[in-house]
Specification:
With about 425 residues, this protein is mostly beta strands. Helix content is about 0%, strand content about 50%. It has two domains: about 140 residues, 6 Propeller (Neuraminidase), CATH 2.120.10; about 270 residues, Neuraminidase, CATH 2.120.10. It contains one helix and 41 strands.
């Protein structure tokens, strides 16, 4: 735009090419450099809106060289190379126009997906070359700014002193088992893991391969242990499947597609899985916006279908005691209650009210817990809180309890008594909060 707010250039090719631009940079020759975090690649377009250069494989994220994981910034350097900051690969990389890597700062692909993970960077979202040739970067989830030289030596740091390593790496689902141990889907480490209260590993599955590409699991989003059968129900996100394994790690079932009215529907990005009546499973697939009840072979007995309330990125669903299903419709910033028989919407929660009668809009809710007919816990990820809400008046859901600001973009929680164990996605840890009446 110019000084008169006249648009001089716009680029809107559609989500297939440009899904979530995080940063734009005008290069020396007048090209526009764009970091597309959702498509996991960098693109450069000229004034004719033609793509003249890309880096990374579009919509194919990975930690290996020449592939990206949520790039947040791309800038041209003085020498014509490009510097990148990858928010979920925790690295800063300089590449040439020939796509050769000059140097990087952070973990190698194997180190990044191994436990414990060294904490060089945690969620960097910006990097820029200084006149001295050194690089300043925002190490956002570690709460600091860092300056390094081209040899990878830290020359300056301002902010907090972070942990040296993490045992967990982007944990998502958490379940407290009958023996009081924790079962966690440890997404970045490509594993599910059972640990005791001291952090000792009792069981793990998924990351036995020597490299990330040879592992059994790829970014598992959810695991639920069926303790009656001694089986693990796993949502294997990036492998686009659900699997069921036993205690000896034998794969008992693999579901890569579901069958609805004789039509096979491939899974795209399976998220949650929950046991319901009999041998049935309630699942969500955020990539294809599916919420369904299936058997353990993938046959659908019920599927959400309401054209007046289309879903966008549903992360979680759970069955109530009154033959209804609550759906966490994440990108629509709402929670739906739907009748199981008719698919009719019974309730929509988009706003909650605090004690001062202030109206608060939900912002990317990820998980809920139906405590009783009148109480629901909502994990509202972008509002960075877990809240317990009185839902008796469906027009005025009121916050009864709410956590402080120490929860950052969390994905899951598990209730035990009056406490919740929360998987702290960005800080790679478990938190315990207790609400007092």
């Amino acid at each position: 735009m110019d000084n008169n707010n006249e648009i001089l250039f716009d680029y809107c090719p559609g989500k297939e090419i440009l899904h979530e631009p995080r940063c734009i940079f005008l290069t020396e020759c007048g090209h526009v450099l764009i970091a597309d975090s959702k498509n996991h690649y960098i693109l450069m377009v000229n004034e004719k809106k033609e793509i003249v250069w890309t880096y990374g494989e579009k919509n194919n994220p990975d930690f290996t060289d020449h592939r990206l994981m949520y790039p947040y910034v791309a800038r041209e350097l003085q020498n014509g190379n490009i510097i990148l900051a990858e928010h979920q690969a925790n690295r800063i990389t300089e590449v040439t126009r020939d796509k050769n890597i000059v140097w990087y700062y952070g973990n190698s692909p194997i180190d990044e997906t191994s436990s414990p993970r060294k904490n060089h960077l945690n969620g960097p979202n910006y990097a820029q070359e200084l006149p001295s040739g050194e690089v300043v970067m925002s190490d956002s989830m570690n709460g600091r700014v860092v300056v390094i030289d081209r040899a990878g030596k830290m020359v300056y740091s301002f902010g907090s002193s972070p942990k040296t390593h993490f045992i967990l790496n982007y944990p998502r689902s958490v379940q407290v088992l009958k023996d009081q141990t924790f079962l966690i889907s440890d997404s970045r480490n490509d594993r599910i893991v059972e640990i005791d209260r001291l952090g000792n590993i009792l069981f793990e599955y998924g990351n036995e391969g020597n490299s990330p590409s040879s592992r059994m699991l790829k970014w598992p989003r959810c695991v639920l242990k069926d303790e009656d059968r001694n089986q693990y129900l796993i949502s294997d996100g990036f492998n686009q499947r659900f699997i069921i394994i036993d205690q000896d790690k034998n794969v008992l079932a693999e579901i890569k597609e579901i069958v609805y009215e004789s039509q096979a529907i491939p899974l795209w990005d399976p998220h949650s899985i929950e046991k319901v009546q009999g041998n049935q499973l309630l699942i969500t697939d955020s990539g294809s916006n599916i919420v369904a009840i299936i058997d353990r072979s993938g046959s659908v007995s019920w599927m959400y279908n309401n054209e007046n309330y289309l879903l966008d990125d549903p992360h979680y669903a759970t069955l109530s005691q009154h033959n209804s299903i609550y759906i966490v419709d994440t990108n629509n910033n709402r929670i739906l209650e739907v009748d199981l028989q008719s698919n009719r919407i019974l309730n929509v929660i988009e706003y909650v009210y605090n004690k001062n009668n202030e109206k608060i809009k939900l912002n990317k809710p990820k998980w809920i817990d139906i405590i009783s007919d009148s109480e629901m816990a909502i994990l509202d990820s972008q509002n960075n809180c877990l809240m317990v809400v009185n839902i008796r008046d469906d027009k005025y859901p009121e916050i009864m309890h709410i956590t402080g600001s120490n929860i950052c973009n969390s994905r899951w929680a598990c209730r035990q008594g009056s406490s919740y164990f929360i998987s702290d996605f960005w800080q790679h840890d478990l938190l315990k909060v207790t609400f007092r009446c």
